[in-house]
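Okay, is this right?
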Amino acid sequence: QVQLVESGGGLVQAGGSLRLSCAASGFTFSNYVMCWYRQAPGEERELVANINGVGFSTNYADSVKGRFTISRDNAKKTVYLQMNSLKPEDTAVYYCNTRITRVTYWGQGTQVTVSS
């Protein structure tokens, strides 16, 4: 079955960096777009970034452009989110996501907390 397992979250000071990882299994990883979403307390879940199957095409939310970088290693079936210049407003639970034949899959999420 499809599984997405995030890791790498934690507590960091403003201006710091974190790298999130999402290990995937149960499907042909390189065939699918992978996404990172986040959800802050009291807010709706929002798309942070996505990357196509071969890793050549990426998209970012305006709020993270120039600070976050999404990448993937298809041999390791893992997608990454490198987060630099973190701000307190980046505090959220970050989720890995993919959609396969009209079914959406989510990981369990990893908490990122940025202190000011």
